[in-house]
Amino acid sequence: MKNGFITFIIMLLLVGLAPRLATAQNVRLENIQFKGNKRVSARKLNKAIHSQANPWYRVFMPWVDSKIFDESTFLTDLLRVEKYYQREGYLQAKVVNYEVNYNTARDEANLVIEVEEGTATKVRDVTFLLHADSSRGLTAGKLVRVMKLKPGKRYREDDLHLDYDKIVQRFGDNGYPYIRARVKPTIDAGEHAVDLEWRLEPGPLSYFGDIRYVGNNHVSGKVIHRGLGFSTGEVYQQKKLVNAQSQVYRLELFQFVSLQASQLDQQVVQVPIEVRVRETSLRTLKLGLGYGSEEKFRGFAQWRHRNFLGGARILRVSARHSTRLNPLTLEFELSQPYFLSNRNDLIVKPFLEWRDESSFEERKIGAETTLNRRLSSKMNIFFTTLVERDSVRSKGVGVAPRATGSYNQSKFRLGIRHDSSDQIFTPTRGQISSAYIEESGRLLRTPFRYIKFFSEHRFYNQTKNKKYVIAAKVAIGVMKPFRGSPETPLADRFFAGGAYSVRGWGRQLLGPLTRSVSDSTVVPQGGNSLFEGSLEIRRGLYKQLSGALFLDYGNVWPDWNGIRIRDLRYAIGAGLRFDTLIGPIRVDVARKLNKQALDGGDLELHLSIGQAF
């Protein structure tokens, strides 16, 4: 505190004695340079100050607002630089010099800030003042292991706040919701060290008290209770309240779910819990019509019965039709939440499907059973068994007869999915990762036995000014026949190209191609290995209208181990999106950069609903 006050006085004197800087409104700030910063990057220092230089791309985008140099803001930024260093553990850091350099016309300014970092202050010792008999095994050793500021680590103010939150959370999750934590840093400036003394007062050991349900008019309290994960009399854990809210909400029975611990201000030992819900309609019918460049006209109908026969079950009956690709799909789906555990869902889905792709026509009937386990609010794993009867007709020449015809199929699939994205339809931050491995041919007698693996990763990041979103996707898949099976079924192979794939090509038209049996048009054959990806820059244009520039790449190979980076095909393009309640309406135009031998035109137009990824 004393060092900070002295620095502040010196900077005030420096400001008072400094020659007046040009403050004309038309002085553009073109560059900010830092000198002497060896341990802290210029990028981080730029984020710590308010003065901002014009971006390099402004030369090509003159409509971007120009950054104007302001004297008072800059002089205050000198203090912000020192404060940032102190928060990062460089307690003796200071600004030793600065320069403001103008061009000849004095309408552009370049700033130079020179710093002297000094030696970093590190944590020397961490001690806890805590009664061992009131901590339920939360010893000093266990606490230190979860903390950022351990002995030998650089002392950072942000890490100190994180450690405080972790201590409070750790005690709150072990029955002590009334924990009081205080920390006393003792700084040894000569040794560049700091000793941290934590004083902890856990308060009384508490338990979950009576649980009260409010707003459940048709759904029983027993159903809600199964999702909570705790009962009256158990040791109080704050994390269970957080988990319980998402567990109950995912039943799809409620518009609103809130869990609140009562009487915490009175430090009661038995903490009452109030679960407040607002029920949604138990029976709904949805109808929809649409148009896309791939499916053409399409329609769907879905009837949903929530809390079917009690027990929070959900019955869905749906039908879909499109003039291309999907003449008919019928599905009956029954989901049972809390199967064996409040984190498990069991889903049984009989179905009938008729697909009419450019490469094949497939009709199948079967049933799928999935056990889904929720590992966290962002991650789940699933295990699926599927049996079906398929009838497949190829539309191309040269496709092995063994890959088509009528046959049985049985599949086991094990997968995982992690979703940390911030939105459903148009994510701006976060990641979505998924992967599964599938084995076919174990249960039923079938001509096809194969192992299949597929993984996809999507990444979203919004720029600091929130004007641009950088989105990227990469996917890889392999499929290998085994146990004497010479082929993989045509309808299960990998295909690339289309509105949600490499957009320079039409649907499934990237990869191995053949000719049509009837009119010699190009027909895709699919393959046993796939690699594709996309890089997209998105920007809002006007209200709900936004635009995108993208680069797509990928290919499909006949063999399971056929992936060759040198064989990748590339396409560039641009598109418009208009946000609606059901997702963005998207128009994309893409151009092939390196065509295949049987490709047609250079351009491809796609009209669809939803982002490409």
Feature tags:
single chain; 613 residues; mainly beta; Ubiquitin-like (UB roll); three-stranded mixed sheet; 13% helix; 45% strand
Summarize the SSE layout with pairings.
Blueprint: H1 2-17, E1 28-35, H2 42-48, H3 71-87, E2 94-102, E3 108-116, E4 122-129, H4 140-145, H5 157-172, E5 180-188, E6 193-201, E7 207-214, H6 221-228, H7 238-249, E8 254-261, E9 270-279, E10 283-292, E11 296-306, E12 314-322, E13 325-337, E14 344-356, E15 360-374, E16 379-394, E17 405-419, E18 430-440, E19 450-462, E20 468-481, E21 513-515, E22 522-524, E23 529-542, E24 545-557, E25 569-578, E26 585-592, E27 603-609
Parallel strand pairs: 1-3, 4-6, 7-9
Antiparallel strand pairs: 2-3, 5-6, 8-9, 10-11, 11-12, 12-13, 13-14, 14-15, 15-16, 16-17, 17-18, 18-19, 19-20, 20-23, 21-22, 23-24, 24-25, 25-26, 26-27
Helix pairs in contact: 1-3
Model description:
The structure is a single chain. With 613 residues, the chain is mainly β. It is built from seven helices and 27 strands. The protein folds into four domains: 115 residues, membrane protein fhac (Ubiquitin-like (UB roll), Roll), CATH 3.10.20.310; 80 residues, Roll (Ubiquitin-like (UB roll)), CATH 3.10.20.310; 73 residues, Ubiquitin-like (UB roll); 253 residues, Beta Barrel (Porin). The strands form five sheets. It has a 16-stranded antiparallel β-sheet with strand order 10-11-12-13-14-15-16-17-18-19-20-23-24-25-26-27, with no helix packed on it. The protein has a three-stranded mixed β-sheet with strand order 1-3-2, covered by helices on one side. Strands 4-6-5 form a three-stranded mixed β-sheet, covered by helices on one side. Strand 12 and strand 13 form a beta hairpin. Helix 1 runs antiparallel to helix 3. 26% of the residues are buried.
